[in-house]
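ingest -> validate -> predict -> emit
validate: passed (alphabet ok, no gaps, 441 aa)
predict: started
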Amino acid sequence: MWRSAASRRFQSTLFSPLTANRDLNHTSILPTLSNGMLDIYMRQSVFLLSSQVHSSAIGGVGDVTSVGGSAMGGQGAAIGSGRAISSFHEVFRHYGRCYWELSKAKLSMLVVATSGAGYVLGSGGAVDFAGLCCTCAGTMMVAASASTLNQVFEKENDTKMKRTCKRPLPSGRISIPHAAMWASTVGLAGTSLLAWQTNSLATGLAASNLFLYAFVYTPLKQIHPINTWVGAVVGAIPPLLGWAAASSNISVEAMILPAALYFWQIPHFMALAYMCRDDYLAGGFRMFSFNDPSGWRTALVSFRNCLYLLPLGWLAYEWGLTSEWFVLESTLLTLGIGIASLLFVNERTTKNARRMFYSSLLYLPIFMSGLLLHRLPSKQHKNNNALAEIGQDRKELIMYNEIQREEIQQRKMNVRRAPVAYASIAPFPFLPAPLYFPPDS
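emit:
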């Protein structure tokens, strides 16, 4: 009570108009203040004193009250402006984070990496970096749209799962119409960019992959375990998209990276589904591991698909996509993930499933890096170069024949013909016989 009264008394004294308190005796106030209140009082006194000195130095005005009022008004305007900027920053940050999570940005960037690798492999010797950037940007927007639509359709399921309940839609940080509008906008922008900067084949693959992921794979997750294999097809299309954007066609060597992605995704998602079985069951998703309590079939399917990865390095070399060094690197890499899956077959535990999951995360970037490091010009480009060389040789041969023909014609024109006396024939039997004169005569 005493402190409150003393505080009010010295504040009213201190903040009264300075014109009425010019001769304020600080010694009369100091004994009545405690240590904490004394500190506050001294700070406010210093502030007011500095304000008075500053106002006098600027205008030499004696009445500091009006100056203080103007300063307070300017300070209030500055505070209001700062609050507006801070509010705009918070709104921008909130929706930016929501869009980032709706787009599953990390997964989308992996999709962009596979698409970019396909573009480089399909480019042959020279890479069009402007086309590469446009392809990656369009792929990123299409992938973000597909991921957002997936979360729009699975909002209720995500609410029931621990690993997804904090996403923007289940947590209520953004509304479903807002998320659907975001998905439509970025999806349309991505396909339009691909149609403008690449070709119809790449645009068609992007649009079909968006449809397959959002409207086929997503509902299948609640219907049948085959959704894992459909999702593997979705993941295998982006490198084909990149190849098609670079070369406007799809050849047999273009299937190396999509095949690797397809077979790689099976052990990757099998391990994830095994580790999160309870969570997926609570969310209402039907995974392959649900009908396999022992985990034997899940582990066996994972190991089998790891074996399918073994010949891909040799095929890449045989089809002229990479050098022979990639065969060794790919084989060693596949043996690594194969051993992890074999351990999971031998002992079906969460620890071994996690080991196989992390092995799969390590496999893909190293495999793509090896493809890009040891890549050779594509066979299509070799064929084009060979045809160009044959065409050039043919042109040179035709020109040579023309020159030879002209030289022969010139020689024929320069040859002098021998004069000939016509033979005597009826009715002129008296004419002499034909006479031939040599050219020198």
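Residues 13-72, 417-426, 433-437 have pLDDT under 50 and may be disordered.
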